[in-house]
Amino acid sequence: MNFYNYIFQRTVNDNTDSKRILGVNIMKNEALDLLAELKALVGSADQVDVTAQGIADHSYDWWPVAAKWRQNGKMPCKPDAVVYPGNVDEVSRVLAWANDNSVPVTPWGLGSSVTGQPLTEYGGVTLDLSRMDKIIKVDVENLIVRAEAGVMGGDLEDHLQTLGYTLNHSPQSLYRSTVGGWFATRATGQLSSRYGGIEDLAYSFTAVLADGTILETVDLPRMAVGPDLRHLMIGCEGAMGVITEVALKIFPLPETRLNETITFPTVEVGKDAMRAIMAANLRPALLRFYDVAEARHAMQDKDFASPVMFVGTEGMDAVAKAEMEAVRNVCAKLGGKPIGPKGTEGWITRRYDFSTIEGFVMRPEGVAETIEISNNWERIMDTYDLMTERLAPYADEVLGHFSHVYSTGVSLYVILLGEAENGEESEARIKKMWEVAMEASLETGASISHHHGSGLARNPYVGRALGSGLDVMQRIKDALDPNNTLNPGKLGLRRP
To answer: Where is this site: Important for enzyme activity (predicted)?
Structure first.
């Protein structure tokens, strides 16, 4: 199988002599010339993959809809080639070439997105950054680590812990995602209520723009010299530039970690307790609250009958103890009952486990999805009630928890599990879940995503979510990427 066959893979007639890519007619001989040019831009020929397996491996991420495509024999998001750059200069050359030839480029970390962010709808090149996996420097004086974009998060965290430090960024995908992916998707972790999301943990970055320009920012605690360019790239999903290097905060490992499990009479009371904890200016590292349906899973007890909160405090021994006592007191005033650390500690040992969701998704008839949003305290119960009610007809189990807590509000994470008659029905039901969840979010004034990002799953709803902000974002996109080659069509932006 050769590059030409892939460039022509979406034509009606396999014998067609040309194909239109982003408005440009590509002839067979031109396709072969482009492949030769592409190989010349990187260090070795094996950095350009046009094999059937290489293409297939980059045609699906961990979005359950993509899993159903695979099971149902569909491949609607095929790149024409996969390129593995080894350094920022190779990224720059590939992007400049793609810009000159109007070839789409879609960045890829480890493919762990659950919304279709790294999947291309327009062919072109998938830029797999996994070979850019160097930990460049651990700066213990300034508490910064600098790493290439392809470093797996778990590898970085494990390395730091051997030195007595931690990122305090622990998404469930820690061991299947990259630091560049965190940055590009505006990720957050399970300790965000104290340490924040990636936007709070990232000091600086290096990125390559569509024309090959290398953008570097500096490791300084704060600057008042125009807008903060980090926020141009954080969450851009590769549409504004390709992240190649990131500098992140690090923290000394805490002296003490304490955990508690607290039950509440109702979901609303538990939600109020979370708000009260934040209003009291307490910042436990771990703060999660489960409705009864998900509490049974989180506690691994099918008979568990109460909504439950998991709390963790950490730091110097006296501080961690004092904060935990203060959290218990706040919760007690609202009817919370501590039942000991066992439930929370059990969850901590399983916090990177995807087996429940994947057990459903990997079977053709299995239905599973996770959808997260955020809202202010005054409206979050409206979103929870409406979303869980409307999603119930499409899932055998609707599970909900609140996490990633702020003084102004909280995220809601809904897990949907069920069985369909067959693979086609399973795919259709998951797509319907997205439609129902997004409409419920918009109707109740919620965000359409808290940390999984837009990708393909949320793309149809971005315009309504951003309002006039989408036009501003489109103007920025047009200025940075006038040929629309970087992950085109994502984030609700103009399609080719």
So the answer is: 288
Count the alpha carbons within 13 Å of 54 in the hemisphere toward its beta carbon.
20
Residue 8: pLDDT over 60: no
Residue range of the domain that includes 343:
256-349
Residues acting as catalytic residues = 413
- Enumerate the known binding-site residues for FAD: 107-113, 237-243
pLDDT for 456-479, tens place per residue? 999 999 999 999 999 999 999 999
Task: Give the closest residue to 170 by CA, choosing from 456, 455, 451, 458.
Answer: 451
Find the CATH number of the domain harbouring 414: 3.30.300.330
Q: Is residue 496 domain-resident?
A: no
- What are the tens digits of pLDDT across the range 305-337? 999 999 999 999 999 999 999 999 999 999 999
Structure tokens belonging to residue 465: 């979510």
pTM above 0.70, yes or no: yes
Output the known binding site. 107-113, 237-243
Contact 46, 54 (CB under 8 A): no
In whole angstroms, give the CA distance from residue 198 to residue 443. 28
SS3 letters across 300-337: CCCCCCCCEEEEEEEECHHHHHHHHHHHHHHHHHCCCE
